[in-house]
Specification:
Blueprint (H helix, E strand, L loop, with lengths): L1 H6 L1 H20 L4 H18 L5 H18 L3 H4 L8 H10 L30 H27 L1 H16 L5 H8 L14 H23 L1 H9 L11 H19 L8 H21 L3 H20 L2 H19 L5 H17 L3 E2 L5 E2 L23 H17 L2 H4 L1
Antiparallel strand pairs: 1-2
Helix pairs in contact: 2-3, 2-4, 3-7, 4-7, 4-10, 7-8, 7-12, 8-9, 10-12, 12-13, 12-14, 13-14, 13-15, 14-16, 15-16, 15-17
Length: about 425
């Protein structure tokens, strides 16, 4: 059906698109992994194949469809489940209908809501924990599929893979100049996917979807008590359940979209909102990275933080100054933590750039001079930079404190 509509979209699009969205939404909501994956893939194919022909109204319907699917498949019961909980068929049916899906759920041999010929079972709750866990696992899979769907719609699948490969190459080659390689690292600036066809307001709707998915996964991963409870009950076998992929893939897609908007001259009207969102989620990501305790969580975030900080380093001076002034204390804390070599390298470059951008002058005799009247002038060759007033006094004190720390423990971070 999707192929037929794609081939004759000009004729059939206006007649069938609403029904097709409803059918695909119904497929994704089923407690059947293969059917859910197929629905997600068909939705992606439909949008990528016909996106250039979409009107603003159709894009609104598309974003609404994606939002409804995300909301209806978010495995919220992972956080609230207790032994003895159940899923009630009537409650599930009402929730489906409230989600603007006109099609009713039909029997499925793989669904936790399968019906029997005995109509009395409609009102009887399902009490099997394993059947509930099976349905929740499928929803976890669907969330990952939908994150990938959004990324593929906006940028095409090959774009993200190419960017990740270039990031990996950079992380493994410290001798490569970040300044010279950043031009290749941002080769995806050429419009690919549906990015150029989606309005800014619709892109922000997609960002909101990804943000909600990210915070849900992060809340679950931080809830050690609930994860242990599910683990002991047999959820996902012998491994403590986590949503690390959902947590990292969603925020990685958010960063990718925000930085693309930031470099798009045709969307300058969005830059204040992009700046606000990037400042907020960047600060939150840095704070969360510092609080990670398990090796598995840290490992999953290293590549993400490397790509994020590499993009930050490539910003122009004005934007770099704006964001670093909010994140500086967190970056200082990151310096003091145990970092992998690739991440340590990009943090070093960030601090080296802070010097000229904020007017902190590094002389040949190894002394640093801070342009603030409340701090002694340690050299006669220091020249104040008026642009540094955006950096508050507390940040300068952090510079001194961390300079002393680095001189004893991390001296090679800046001076090798």
């Amino acid at each position: 059906m999707v192929d037929v509509v794609t081939q004759y979209f000009d004729v059939l699009g206006g007649l069938l698109l609403d029904d097709i969205y409803s059918q695909l939404e119904w497929c994704v909501q089923q407690d059947n992994e293969q059917l859910a994956r197929s629905g997600s893939n068909c939705l992606e194919h439909l949008v990528i194949s016909n996106g250039p022909k979409f009107t603003n109204e159709i894009w609104s319907k598309t974003c609404r469809c994606l939002t409804d699917i995300f909301n209806s498949t978010l495995p919220r019961q992972l956080i609230t489940w207790k032994p003895g909980d159940y899923l009630d068929l009537e409650e599930m049916t009402e929730r489906r209908e409230s989600g603007h899906v006109s099609l009713r759920r039909f029997p499925s041999a793989h669904s936790i809501n399968s019906l029997s010929s005995n109509s009395s079972r409609l009102s009887r709750p399902i009490t099997s924990d394993q059947r509930i866990f099976s349905a929740l696992q499928i929803r976890c899979v669907v969330q990952l599929e939908l994150i990938t769907t959004i990324e593929n719609i906006v940028f095409f699948p090959a774009t993200a893979k190419k960017e990740d490969a270039e990031a990996l190459a950079l992380s493994q080659g410290d001798s490569i100049s970040l300044e010279s390689s950043s031009l290749h690292y941002y080769s995806f600036d050429q419009d690919q996917g549906m990015y150029s066809h989606i309005s800014s307001s619709h892109i922000f709707q997609l960002l909101d979807i990804l943000k909600e998915s990210h915070y849900f996964a992060r809340d679950f991963n931080s809830n050690q008590e609930q994860r242990n409870l599910l683990w002991k009950a047999g959820f996902k076998g012998n491994v403590r359940p986590n949503l690390l992929k959902q947590e990292t893939l969603s925020i990685a897609c958010i960063f990718r979209i925000l930085f693309r908007l930031y470099r798009d001259e045709s969307r300058q009207d969005t830059w204040p909102e992009v700046e606000r969102r990037l400042t907020e989620i960047g600060k939150d990501a840095l704070s969360h990275f510092l609080m990670l305790e398990s090796d598995a969580q840290k490992e999953s975030w290293v590549s993400l933080m490397f790509r994020f900080l590499t993009r930050v380093h490539s910003l122009n001076d004005e934007r770099f100054r704006t964001h670093i002034s909010h994140w500086y204390p967190l970056l200082c804390d990151i310096v003091s933590s145990d970092l992998k070599p690739e991440l340590r390298s990009v943090v070093r470059r960030i601090f080296l750039r802070i010097g000229p951008v904020f007017g902190i002058y590094y002389s040949g005799n190894g002394e640093s001079y801070l342009p603030n009247s409340s701090i002694p002038n340690w050299g006669s060759d220091w020249v104040p930079d008026p642009c540094n007033q955006g950096l508050i006094d507390g940040v300068y004190l952090e510079v001194i404190k961390n300079k002393l720390l680095l001189s004893s423990s991390f001296g090679d971070l800046f001076f090798i």
